[in-house]
Specification:
CATH topology of the largest domain: Fructose-1,6-Bisphosphatase, Chain A, domain 1
Strand order of the largest sheet: 2-1-3-4-5-6-7-8
Structural class: alpha+beta
CATH class of the largest domain: Alpha Beta
CATH superfamily of the largest domain: Fructose-1,6-Bisphosphatase, subunit A, domain 1
Largest sheet: 8 strands, mixed
Helix content: 25-40%
Distance between the termini: 30 Å
Number of strands: 13
Strand content: 25-35%
Order of helices and strands: HHEEEHEEEEEEHEHEHEHEH
Bound molecules: adenosine-2'-monophosphate, calcium ion
CATH architecture of the largest domain: 2-Layer Sandwich
């Protein structure tokens, strides 16, 4: 697979930050046993990765704007282009020594997602997609799963926890999915959940309360792998409504129905 110049820039930034995160992840496993614990250290690792990505991307494409998990909004001179960056998605896993975390970088041009990279350095996985050119995992072309029935499907999700998310709404949605699927999985990194849908490992995914930097890259990767991504009402206001439903065509439709939405605009 020949990579475009913009994908090369994004991959280089993600790999550089990935090497830094991988080193720090090794250290977290030592700090687990210390009295202070690895909390502050993880936050430093996160900021360091974001700084690396910011520097690499702004050097390669001066003037582009940014929306980053840690740094927030940085308006560039070029407001047609915006990077959406999550330097460490799956922070809780990272903190607990679980090797399921990722770097997520997406590029919007005039509000449209055009390029995406998700990298899990602990598992040496690199997902890339460019609008109109397909999605790839380590240079292998990706395609969403071919399962057509909910009863055969494995569905990823994110579970609200202490101090976060709407527990009541989640407990309303969960019974329908658990009663109708072959299994539910919770990875703890929304970017990787979406990458797994693109790779056909998960047949579908739903979550609420996510931010644009958690999902932007994964949305394009799923779509370029032939999948569908909407908000829980079947529309495209994923960033505004902070709900997301993804899957192959059939399972996406089935999930929307089970979650009680009308599939109006897909
Ligand atoms: P994080 O690791 O970068 O915090 C887990 O279900 C997913 O929810 C992860 O992708 C996690 O990203 C994200 N998440 C956790 N807390 C969040 C918050 N306050 N706002 C948005 N996303 C959050
Ligand atoms: Ca995140």
């Amino acid at each position: 697979m020949a990579r475009s110049a913009i994908i090369n820039v994004m991959v280089q930034a993600a790999m550089k930050a990935g090497r830094s995160l991988a080193r720090d992840f090794g250290e977290v496993q030592n700090l687990q046993v210390s009295l202070k614990g690895p909390g502050d250290y993880v936050s430093q690792a996160d900021h360091k990765a974001e700084k690396t990505i910011f520097e690499e991307l702004s050097r390669a494409r001066p003037g582009y704007s940014f929306l980053m998990e840690e740094g927030g909004v940085i308006e560039g001179t070029d407001n047609q282009h915006r990077w959406l960056v999550d330097p460490l998605d799956g922070t809780t896993n990272f903190l607990h020594g679980i090797p399921i975390f990722s770097i997520s970088i997406a590029l919007e041009r005039q509000g449209q997602l055009v390029a995406a990279v998700i990298h899990n350095p602990a598992m040496d996985e690199l997902y890339v997609a460019e609008r109109g050119s397909g999605a790839f995992l380590n240079d292998r072309r990706l395609r969403v799963s071919g399962r057509r029935k909910m009863e055969d499907s494995v569905i990823g999700t994110g579970v609200p926890h202490l101090g976060r998310g709407n527990h009541h709404d989640y407990l309303r949605d969960l019974p329908a999915i658990m009663a109708n699927s072959a299994g539910i999985r919770r990875l703890g990194s929304a970017a990787l959940d979406l990458a797994y849908v693109a790779a056909g490992r998960f047949d579908g995914f739903w979550e609420a309360g996510l931010s644009p930097w958690d999902v932007a890259a994964g949305m394009l990767i799923v779509r370029e792998a032939g999948g569908f991504v909407t908000d829980a009402d079947g529309g495209y206001e994923i960033f505004d409504k902070q709900t997301i439903v993804a899957g192959n065509e059939e399972i996406h439709r089935a999930l929307l129905k089970l979650l009680g939405a009308k599939r109006t605009r897909v």
